[in-house]
């Protein structure tokens, strides 16, 4: 009920809250949905890349802007830590579990989407480390997208980068996991 004519019926006009706060069931669906979509797209595109690009020369997809080049990466981003694939596997598992634990507190659409994309991308790369050659905990991640002057990557990597950007955005905006804003 309005306390005065023209007064807001909700707290959406309160500058200390995120106007994208949502009930727990909707944020869980958004989080899980984003994770599953990213994971599925990552796995499917990697399967297609391996099936169609193995033994093939790099193929331009969008002129000289985007090329399909199949590589298998035993390390992390930019081929860092190539000798530590089993450690990277454990780190991926820990990151996924921590994000899932944190996601229980999320009440913001952007936080839910970001955490879902992060989990989906990390799970896609983790599945490569667990299931691909040379063996469990040592598997190489399939990468197949190449931009000029940039390392080859996959859709899971892209989702992780977008998730990181959304997390940074929410942090700079002062939006907490529960959707409220930190006071200046």
Largest beta-sheet characterization: 3 strands, antiparallel
Helix content: 40-55%
User: What is the rounded distance between the termini?
Assistant: 30 Å
Proportion of residues in extended strands:
5-15%
The number of distinct β-strands equals: 3
| Radius of gyration, taken over Cα atoms and rounded to an integer in Å | 20 Å
Trace the largest sheet across and list its strands: 1-2-3
Poorly predicted regions: 10-20
> Which H/E pattern describes the elements?
HEEHHEH
Tertiary shape: globular
What's the helix count? 4
Indicate the structural class: mainly alpha
How many domain units? 1
Walk me through what this model shows.
With 184 residues, this protein is mostly helical. The chain has one domain (22-172). 49% of the residues lie in helices and 10% in strands. Strands 1-2-3 form a 3-stranded antiparallel sheet. The chain is globular, with a radius of gyration of 20 Å. The protein starts with 23 loop residues before the first helix and ends in an 11-residue tail after the last helix.
């Amino acid at each position: 009920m309005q306390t005065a004519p023209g007064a807001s019926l909700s707290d959406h006009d309160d500058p200390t809250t995120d106007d994208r706060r949502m009930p727990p069931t909707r944020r869980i669906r958004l989080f899980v949905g984003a994770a599953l979509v990213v994971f599925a797209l990552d796995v499917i595109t990697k399967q297609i890349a391996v099936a169609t690009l193995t033994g093939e020369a790099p193929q331009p997809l969008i002129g000289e802007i985007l090329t399909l080049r199949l590589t298998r990466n035993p390390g992390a981003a930019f081929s860092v830590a190539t000798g530590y694939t089993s450690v990277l596997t454990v780190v991926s598992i820990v990151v996924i579990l921590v994000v899932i634990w944190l996601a229980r507190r999320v009440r913001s659409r952007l936080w839910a989407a970001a955490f879902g994309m992060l989990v989906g991308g990390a799970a896609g790369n983790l599945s490569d480390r667990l299931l691909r050659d040379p063996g469990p905990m040592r598997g190489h991640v399939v990468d197949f997208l190449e931009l000029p002057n940039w390392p080859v990557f996959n859709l899971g990597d892209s989702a992780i980068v977008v998730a990181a950007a959304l997390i940074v955005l929410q942090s700079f905006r002062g939006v907490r996991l529960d959707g409220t804003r930190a006071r200046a």
